[in-house]
Amino acid sequence: MKGNTAFKPRLALRRRVELAVAVALFIATFVGIVVLLTLIVVILQKGLPWLDWDFITGTPSRFPEKSGFKPAIVGSLWLIALTALFAIPLGVGGAIYLEEYARKNMITRLIQVNIGTLAGIPSVLYGVLGLALFVRFLGFGRSLLSGALTMTLLILPVIIISTQEALRSIPYTLREAAFALGATRWQVIAGQLLPAAAPGIFTGLILSLSRALGETAPLLMIGALTFVTFLPESLFDPFTVMPIQIFNWTSRPQEAFRGVAAAGIIVLLVFLLLMNASAIYLRNYFERHRPR
């Protein structure tokens, strides 16, 4: 009886604490959503009057009414395509090796710790590394190739970690069944594990590329241009991207450039929403078609 009477007050206290935590989390979520919606409304109000086809296809200008966004859009598409070309094979291949081939010893544990640490490093430090390694040491200059390689370093740890987690989510019995039927290790990986882990892998890949699309600090560090009126035609051409062009417009003294920057933000948000929507679509598609 004494134990029961002592338990009831503690139970009531835990319920009050649980209620207080739930209310605090709800308030925090509500405030965050309100702030986000307020920012979106303000951006739409300022940017929509400036958003038209001439803005999409035009080039930057010193006059707000003549400013366009095309070089930044094309530069971003180039950058994301090259980053995906470099980062996806390296990231997915590294994750497969660490998860399926590498021995579980002190060296692999040390590698895992380092990958986790690199995933949390501020992006500006990758810009410093890209400036020292790609721009100066390898002599690529302030080019599109240097930017893509820097972005590859930035998202590579995230791709490796997300791919490993997707592979770990597959029951080990699937591997054992495939091995029991005489499949080689690579046949198991290519025929069973990768299709089954595809929803998580594609989600991690696209969200990583979305992060690269919105990054500014590393590209500023390697010297990406803030005012470009031409389109890149090779890997060694100078370039700009959407976040940097938006940063350039917001730094201008004319008030009209705030509206131009808001129009650029709307375009960038559309690209990010399309990439996230494609991640959701691919995840749902491979969820329906994964091996059972």
Summarize the structure.
The chain has 292 residues and is mostly helical. It contains 11 helices and no strands.
Plain-language structure description:
With 292 residues, the protein is mainly α. It folds into two domains: 2-50; 55-289, MetI-like fold (Orthogonal Bundle), CATH 1.10.3720.10. The protein is 77% helix and 0% strand. The protein contains eleven helices and no strands. The protein has helices at 2-47, 53-57, 70-101, 106-119, 123-137, 144-168, 172-180, 185-214, 217-222, 242-250, 256-289. α3 packs across α10 (242-250) and α10 packs antiparallel against α11 (256-289). The longest helix has 46 residues, at 2-47. The protein starts with a helix and ends with a helix.
Write the layout of secondary structure elements.
Elements: H1 2-47, H2 53-57, H3 70-101, H4 106-119, H5 123-137, H6 144-168, H7 172-180, H8 185-214, H9 217-222, H10 242-250, H11 256-289
Helix pairs in contact: 1-11, 3-6, 3-8, 3-10, 4-6, 5-6, 6-8, 7-8, 8-11, 10-11
